[in-house]
Amino acid sequence: MPVAIITGASKGLGRALAEALAGRGWDLVLDARGGRVLAEAARAVAGHGARVEALPGDVTDAGHRAALVAAARGFGGVDLVVHNASALGAEPLTRLAELPLEGLRRALEVNTVAALGLVREALPWLRESATGTVITLSSDAAAEAYGTWGGYGASKAALDQLAAVLAVEEPGLRVWAVDPGDMATDLYAAAVPEDDSPRPAPADVVPAFLRLLDERPASGRYSAPSLLEAR
């Protein structure tokens, strides 16, 4: 069975994607910081028939990243790495003039540095896979200038560039930076708590990711709403 590592998998898009992949026969290694919520998610995912290893921890910790890859190797290898874990930098979001620098550092460490660290840890096994794939979660804030989204957007813009360069340096892999579009998630609620307008559920966005895995287009940056519209 193919094996995926998904970070930030206890809820939201990470959990929804894990359940969809489990239903397709993937074995999964799941990460999140909250052990109790992650364990609940893992039980739900395993109910689809997958082998699931849930490892609570912080993706900024090199030892934790190594443990995630070791668990995937125990299932047979690494075919897919999804870096979904994200940090906002400030909750709620704030203008750059008030953004705590430690918050910006945290966003960069979680969203950018940890993503590269995990890929580097998994790279030997991704190269061995016939379908080695890396998916990084982007944002329209990485490409557009939205007030209060500066720190988060900067970290995602840096992640987009890392993904683009990785695709050039590792032509045998597929490397997709995916902007999922607006979703009803705890992360967005923490970012902009006063905005309660309706948004798609993460499960409604997952088919865009499945389409990428099915069709395996060239490495690059993709928009989930565009992928869903073109179905």
Give the topology.
Blueprint: E1 3-6, H1 12-23, E2 27-32, H2 35-46, E3 52-56, H3 62-75, E4 80-83, H4 101-128, E5 133-137, H5 150-169, E6 174-179, H6 186-191, H7 202-215, E7 220-223, H8 224-229
Parallel strand pairs: 1-2, 1-4, 2-3, 4-5, 5-6, 6-7
Helix pairs in contact: 1-2, 1-7, 3-4, 4-5
Quick tags:
15% strand, alpha/beta, 7 strands, 231 residues, seven-stranded parallel beta sheet, single chain
Q: Please, could you describe this protein's structure?
A:
By secondary structure, this protein is of the alpha/beta class. It contains eight helices and seven strands. It has helices at residues 12-23, 35-46, 62-75, 101-128, 150-169, 186-191, 202-215, 224-229; strands at residues 3-6, 27-32, 52-56, 80-83, 133-137, 174-179, 220-223. The protein is globular, with a radius of gyration of 16 Å.
> How many helices in DSSP terms?
8
- Tell me the distance between the termini: 26 Å
- Within the largest sheet, what's the order of strands? 3-2-1-4-5-6-7
Return the string of H and E elements.
EHEHEHEHEHEHHEH
Average pLDDT level: 97
The biggest beta sheet is recorded as: 7 strands, parallel
Please bin the fraction of helical residues.
Answer: 40-55%
Low-pLDDT regions: none
Sum up the overall morphology in one term: globular
Got a strand count? 7
Strand content: 5-15%
Radius of gyration over C-alpha positions, nearest whole angstrom = 16 Å
Structural class: alpha/beta
